[in-house]
Amino acid sequence: MDWTSLAAELRNMILEALIHEGNVAYYPSVCREWQSTIERFNFHSFNPTPQDIPVFENMTTRNFGLIKYIWYSIELRNYDCTECDRLETDDQRETNQATVEDGLRTIFCALSEHPPGGNMTLDISIHSPSDSQHHFKYIRFEPANTLSSRNPPKPTPYHVSTHSPSVPLPSVLAIHKIFWDIEVGADSEERDFWPSVPTVPCITHLLLRRQTRRRWGGDNLIPLIARLPNLQDLCYEPWRKWTPLMQHETDCKLMQWSESPIPRNMKKMTIFEDFNETYISANRTGSIEALEAEPVRTTPMSVTAALAEASLGLQHLSLAFIIDAVRFWEVRQPYWVWERLLTLSLTSRDLVPHRGSKDANSMIIQQHNQSRTCQNFKLWSSRMKDKDMSQDRSIGCLSLEILATGAWTVYRNSVRQS
Predict the structure, then answer these.
(1) What's the distance, Cα to Cα, between the start and end of the chain in Å?
(2) From CA 284, how far away is CA 288, in angstroms rounded?
(3) Of 108, 117, 288, 343, whose CB count within 10 A is highest?
(4) Per-residue model confidence (pLDDT) at position 396
């Protein structure tokens, strides 16, 4: 039976089964259809380290155009049990800073040689292989794209920890060590670093996920995003700071970034501020003060206003935990209009079961009046104890449907467009 005599659906099923089994290196030589399908699979996701970057230089334009997702992992220096409960020394911090800067410059220089063509995601992770060998054994560093899971991350060397399993929480110093700020161009040579990093027009999506515990500050986002002129989608997942003073400094940098120009092609922005409340209890070494993070996030109104204003030209916006939905509308100026907004996702502490839907409906109607183009509005409870409770509200042209999940009562209202 000739291959082309089979129905297209059956041919696709056969190729998908072969790809699922793996070991497809020899299949592209069967015929052009197999070659095209399998090459799209093989080149779809690429997980390079800085040492793998020369592969880009040897890749043909055709094959490079098949890449849709790049998980770029920058590995910092290793450390042992004598260091895991200590902050990095100045020399160690400078070494890690140089590693990050060299890694960013390397990937941007390699990608800058390729013209834009379709959608391409750059997912940047920064970590030390030792991070998951001590107090934080649950940490995993993996690509976000499921297709790239066929190439699992390299295993870390076997390590025997000297920490007692009876100690449930890491020390304050260990927490500060792994959640340290990512410092790029932070010294007197800052003027020399970012000008040496070229623009990359082929990247349309940027992921800075929360699996990188070390924090990207707003001051680093400004020059980083400025080198992605065709960026359409930004996913930024910072970790909340552990002390009010540190959080204030971070919020100032975040506001500075929010007030900076965003790429003209930007359509979607997702900011998810993560926080692990169990770390507040960490007070093992006694060498520095216990963690004093706010149990309830109170983002300054100036930061909320800056983020809200920066979102005016977007089509899709998601702000989780970093600001409250109530404040998002409180800071609105009379001349602000979200003319292009299609989807909006916010969190609110006022969304609680025993209050019913009155407060939620008030926010929804307010949102509907400010963005008549919005097709979907999601409102989630930001209370940690109510993680399993959420309300998903979808706004259509003529009606507002209020849905609920978990232990919430289901409501259904209707809003007529005036």
Answers:
(1) 63
(2) 10
(3) 108
(4) 35
Query: CA 126 to CA 52: how far, in whole Å?
Result: 16
CA gap 39, 34 in Å, rounded: 8
- pLDDT, residue 131, reads 84
pLDDT of residue 197: 94
Hey, what amino acid is at 173? L
Residue 200 pLDDT class (50, 70, 90 cuts) = very high
pLDDT in tens, 352-363: 665 555 566 666
Phi, psi at 227, each rounded to 5°: -95, 10
Please list, residue by residue across 168-204, b when 16 or more beta carbons sit within 10 angstroms of its beta carbon and e when fewer do: eebbbbbbbbbbbbbbbbbeeeeeebbeebeebbbbb
291 secondary structure, DSSP code: P
For Cα atoms 101, 264, 232, give the angle at the middle one, nearest 5 degrees.
65
Say whether 98 sits in a helix, a strand or coil. helix
Token representation of residue 397: 């042209």
Sheet containing 316-324: give its strands across.
Answer: 45-46, 69-75, 121-127, 205-208, 233-236, 268-272, 316-324, 343-348, 376-381, 390-395, 400-405
Element (H, E) at 401: strand 400-405
Rg (CA), the chain: 24
Q: How long a stretch of residues is the chain?
A: 418
- Rounded to an integer, what distance in angstroms lies between the CA atom of residue 283 and that of residue 288? 9
Six-digit token string for 272? 């998810």
Sequential DSSP letters for 111-174: HTTS---S--EEEEEEE-GGGGGTT-TT-----S-GGGGGSPPPPPPP----S-TT--S--HHH
